[in-house]
């Protein structure tokens, strides 16, 4: 499409439309990509749901357009599992996404059809990918090492056939609808995987990450929780590489038994720790912050800090942090790699299983907490990653990856811009 957006300087810009799942771990990379595209001279429109909507005031140079979806309770309830959420969101967003995108292409909202070069759609929004293709726009075995069967994408408690159907729909949507794939990664850690994507799908794959390192001044984060502003001051009072940071991200949750084993394992390890216990992080607790076990706060007084949310990148960059207990969401994993911080891995669902296996067995920068949490095993794993010989070796490898991440250039972003302008 050949037109360009008119600006005060008389230059017309090609426009990119972005659409993400309404979860923090999906929205933040999408908004970083939006800012980078905008900084490279492209117009950017973000289509978004009303649920967990981004704050336009934090991104004044980006246009935000709601799709006006109506979501069922299972898409938004903290007690519904992730597969239920994904299926409900995809079903509910397909028609309103199509209508909003069609309106943009007709010139609704101040745009013009010829301004839009392409749409970048979240890889798990397969109906949206199909809708973009049908409207004239495009948007992600034999050899699976180092993965095992248990590392493949799964959601415990969900119907296996439904999950396989969802994954197949995503793959079919990619093959049928997209012109290229944008991935928040870098060649040094996933060169063979990127080559396999390009070979098997016959599509260009743009490894544009780590996105958050490409800014001199990073844009505002989309956060669903107010961060505790005392975290950094608390860390300042601790020696270098002495504190374990614990966070299972913005969406993952554990059952009450696992939560208690985490707590008493941390207490039994004897190490200082900063633990993010956000509302909704324990299944069945709804939107409330789960109560800590009786006697736990007395046991860890002066050694542990519990917060509802933290500014994770700032925490990971702090010299007091020694290791990161993580669910292996991709944003958390990449941020840990970029700060040279080794990981304790506790994947909860979906692609986190795959990422955890790469962290521990491909890159060698992490240690498994254990698929079944038990306080004694937890304490042993924490002690090993913080002070053991394996932990020291993982820290050295994490530092090497940090150097490679810092050396990643914007050449893939340059290639992506050229590709967009060629559409």
Automatic annotation (TrEMBL):
CDD domains: GT1_Gtf-like. It comes from Panicum hallii var. hallii. One of its GO terms (molecular function) is quercetin 7-O-glucosyltransferase activity. Transmembrane segments: none annotated. It comes from the Eukaryota. Belongs to the UDP-glycosyltransferase family. It holds the Pfam family UDPGT. This is Glycosyltransferase. Coiled coil: none annotated. Keywords: Transferase.
